[in-house]
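Mods, move this if it's the wrong board.
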Amino acid sequence: MMRSKLFVPGSRPELFPKALAGAADSISFDLEDAVIEDNKAEARRLVREALLSPACASTKKILIVRVNALGTPHFAADLDAVVLPRLDLLNLPKVESADDVRTAAQALARLEKERGLPRPVSILANIESPRGLRFAADIASADPRVAGLQIGFADLLEPLGIDRSDAAAVHQIKLAVRLAAGEAGIWVCDAGYANIKDVEGYRTEALAAKRLGYIGKTCLHPSQVAIANEVFRPTDAELAFAQRVVEAAARTSAGAFTIDGRMVDAPFIRRAQALLAIARQLPPPGA
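Not the wrong board. Structure tokens:
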């Protein structure tokens, strides 16, 4: 379950303990945009040390590292530093093709074999260009390691002069990426929201993403974590309805039936089962 994904600059080790002690479901150590060129090597070293630390070994949070893109002089060194037993997801930026994913997957497999890692590292692929958006479905299904997609709106929209606040444009892109992920049977995490002081703007965007079936939202500041956790937690009403659906399905042999005046069939039953499974993974409200 990844309702909230908190970005932490890899060059800011003083923030690591705070992030690990906080309420975010996942922590994304960033070696890419949040780290200036002169600090790349040092950030890489600091994130490696963090992943090897007792704090990361004991946390139940999902641990992610956003590396520098394929084709940069930093990609291979980033992987060499962070492919460790405690890394859950490699966040691969600026993916534009299925071949990009397969290249990263092969590099991961090689390092995992050399190091005898007990489980494969999954990939979170960023859709950040018109080409990447056009090939999103291919990217999503390129390799079994791809667990999810995420949109990078700054890289995607700014060069084209598209206003990030244009809700219609944002909605269209999010729906396209969600459908691409759905074709591959993987999840999508919503993008960050740069205006940290705009609490309602963040909440509105998170709610819109939830309605599109996104599992959670990126947090660029710890103050956004509580909102993401709240929005992406199934509500009591949603869970109560899901429970009634599952119980009714168990009692009937009919392919379709009604609950509360709503027609229910196989897709709704699967969704209800998924919601209840999510609820079982969540901490108590407020935790």
